[in-house]
C-alpha cells in the first residue's frame, strides 16, 4: 500500500494532524499531477503538488476558471442548503475577471498602503491592551486569548461591525470554517442555521448603512454599483461573509502557527529575540512553512496540459498550497523553518494571480505587530499542550493551543 492510497482531499480527516507532508513528498516525486478519486457526491479530479504547476494554473485565466468552485468541498458542503450554495457561488473567490476585478475594486482602496496606515494606531492600541491583559498570567489558550483578539477587532473596525458584536464574528468565522467539525457543527442542520444566521446579520447591517452611510466597508458594499446596477441581496451577503471570514481566519491561524512554530524551533525564536527588527522579514517564511490554507481549486475551461499531464475541459484541479510551499525545487530544505530564507516571499499562502489575497498587507501588518509584542513580553513562553486542529479540508486552523507565558 502506498502512502497516497490513504490520501483524500475530500475527507477532512486527511488533515487532522495538519499538512501531510510525507504524502505530498511522495506524490511530488511519483505523481505530481495525481488523479484523485472522487466520491459518491463528487467526480474525480487532479491534485497538484509542485510549486510551478500550482502557480501556472493560478495565473492561467484563459484555461482555468474559479466560477465552478474555488475549493474542493467536502461532501457535507455539497449537501448544504441551496440558499447557502447560492451565496457561496457569489464569493469573489468564485469569480473570474472582469467580474472579479469589478467587485474587488469596490473595496480595494481600503487595503492600499496609504489607507492601512490609519489602522496602525488602532492595531497598536489593541495589541497593547492584549499584552497588558496577559501580564501576570501563566497558562493561556493562544487561540481564544491571543490569536483571535486583534484580527477580529481589526476586521470589525474596517467593516463597521459594532464592537459589542465582535463575539458574533468569532462565532461566524468558526461556523464558516467548522462545518465538518462536530464541536462547531454537530449536524448539517445546525451548520445550515449557522450560515443563514450570518447572512441575516449581514443584511441587517447593510440595511442600516443604506439608511445611515458611514466611513466603513459595509457602506461601500451597501451602496456599490457595477455597470450602474446595485449589487443584489445575494451578492451583498456574499461580500460581507467573504470578507468577515477571510479577513480574520488566515491571520488568526498564521499567528497561532507562528507562536507554535517558534516554540518548536527554538533556534529560530532565538534569532528573532536577538534581532527583533527582523520580524517583518520573517513573516513570509512563517506563512510558507505553516501554510494556513490546505487547498483551493480551479476547473479547466479547455483541454490543457499541466506539468506534462493532459487535463480535460470540465475537470477540476486541486491546488495543494502546503505541497507547493514545501517543494524542494523552489525552497531548499523545505520542511525547515528558516527565517533567513532569501526567497520565502515567493510562498503561495496568499494565492497567485487575480485571486491574490486582498487583505495580504493588512494580515502581515497585524502579524508583525502582534508577534513583536508577544515575543517582547513573553520571550520564554512554552507550549504545554500541543494544538488541536479544526476538522477541515480547507484551513489549518487551531481550536486550542495551550502555552505557559513564563516558560
Task: Please characterize this protein's 3D structure.
The structure is a single chain. With 407 residues, this protein is of the alpha+beta class. 48% of the residues lie in helices and 12% in strands. It is built from 17 helices and twelve strands. It has helices at residues 21-30, 51-59, 75-78, 82-88, 99-107, 113-116, 120-134, 142-147, 149-159, 166-177, 188-211, 217-223, 233-264, 266-274, 279-290, 321-325, 360-377, and strands at 33-36, 45-48, 64-65, 139-141, 225-226, 229-230, 295-300, 304-306, 309-311, 316-320, 382-389, 398-404. The strands form four sheets. The chain has a five-stranded mixed β-sheet with strand order 1-2-10-7-3. Strand 1 (33-36) and strand 2 form a beta hairpin. Helix 11 packs across helix 12 and helix 13 packs parallel to helix 17 (360-377). The termini are far apart. The mean pLDDT is 93.
Would you spell out the secondary-structure blueprint of this structure?
Blueprint: H1 21-30, E1 33-36, E2 45-48, H2 51-59, E3 64-65, H3 75-78, H4 82-88, H5 99-107, H6 113-116, H7 120-134, E4 139-141, H8 142-147, H9 149-159, H10 166-177, H11 188-211, H12 217-223, E5 225-226, E6 229-230, H13 233-264, H14 266-274, H15 279-290, E7 295-300, E8 304-306, E9 309-311, E10 316-320, H16 321-325, H17 360-377, E11 382-389, E12 398-404
Parallel strand pairs: 2-10
Antiparallel strand pairs: 1-2, 3-7, 4-12, 5-6, 7-10, 8-9, 11-12
Helix pairs in contact: 7-9, 7-17, 9-13, 10-13, 11-12, 11-13, 13-17, 15-17
Amino acid at each position: 500500500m502506498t502512502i497516497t492510497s490513504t490520501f483524500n482531499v475530500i475527507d477532512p480527516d486527511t488533515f487532522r494532524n495538519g499538512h501531510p507532508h510525507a504524502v505530498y513528498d511522495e506524490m511530488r516525486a511519483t505523481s505530481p499531477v495525481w488523479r484523485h478519486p472522487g466520491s459518491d457526491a463528487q467526480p474525480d479530479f487532479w491534485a497538484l503538488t509542485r510549486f510551478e504547476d500550482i502557480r501556472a494554473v493560478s495565473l492561467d485565466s484563459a484555461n482555468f476558471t474559479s466560477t465552478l468552485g474555488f475549493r474542493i468541498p467536502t461532501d457535507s458542503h455539497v449537501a448544504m442548503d441551496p440558499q447557502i450554495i447560492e451565496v457561496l457561488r457569489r464569493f469573489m473567490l468564485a469569480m473570474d475577471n472582469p467580474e472579479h476585478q469589478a467587485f474587488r475594486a469596490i473595496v480595494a482602496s481600503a487595503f492600499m498602503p496609504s489607507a492601512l496606515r490609519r489602522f496602525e494606531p488602532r492595531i497598536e492600541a489593541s495589541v497593547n491592551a492584549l499584552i497588558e491583559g496577559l501580564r501576570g498570567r501563566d497558562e493561556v489558550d493562544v487561540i481564544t486569548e491571543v490569536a483571535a483578539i486583534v484580527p477580529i477587532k481589526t476586521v470589525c473596525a474596517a467593516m463597521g461591525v459594532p464592537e459589542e458584536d465582535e463575539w458574533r464574528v468569532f462565532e461566524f468565522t468558526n461556523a464558516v470554517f467548522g462545518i465538518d467539525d462536530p464541536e462547531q457543527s454537530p449536524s448539517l442542520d445546525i451548520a445550515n442555521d449557522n450560515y443563514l444566521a450570518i447572512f441575516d446579520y449581514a443584511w441587517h447591517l447593510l440595511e442600516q448603512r443604506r439608511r445611515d452611510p458611514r466611513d466603513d466597508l459595509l457602506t461601500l458594499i451597501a451602496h456599490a454599483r457595477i455597470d450602474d446596477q446595485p449589487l443584489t441581496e445575494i451578492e451583498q451577503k456574499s461580500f460581507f461573509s467573504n470578507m468577515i471570514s477571510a479577513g480574520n481566519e488566515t491571520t488568526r491561524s498564521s499567528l497561532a502557527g507562528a507562536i507554535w512554530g517558534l516554540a518548536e524551533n527554538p533556534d529560530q525564536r532565538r534569532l528573532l529575540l536577538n534581532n527583533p527588527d527582523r520580524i517583518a522579514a520573517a513573516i513570509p517564511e512563517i506563512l510558507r512553512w505553516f501554510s494556513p490554507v490546505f487547498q483551493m481549486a480551479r476547473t479547466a475551461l479547455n483541454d490543457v496540459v499541466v506539468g506534462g499531464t493532459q487535463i480535460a475541459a470540465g475537470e477540476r484541479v486541486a491546488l495543494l498550497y502546503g505541497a507547493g510551499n514545501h517543494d524542494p525545487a523552489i525552497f531548499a530544505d523545505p520542511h525547515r523553518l528558516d527565517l533567513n530564507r532569501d526567497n520565502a516571499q515567493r510562498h503561495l499562502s496568499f494565492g497567485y494571480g487575480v485571486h491574490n489575497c486582498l487583505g495580504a498587507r493588512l494580515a502581515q501588518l497585524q502579524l508583525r505587530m502582534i508577534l513583536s509584542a508577544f515575543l517582547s513580553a513573553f520571550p520564554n513562553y512554552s507550549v504545554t499542550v500541543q494544538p488541536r486542529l479544526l476538522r477541515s479540508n480547507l484551513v489549518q486552523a487551531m481550536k486550542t493551543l495551550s502555552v505557559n507565558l513564563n516558560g
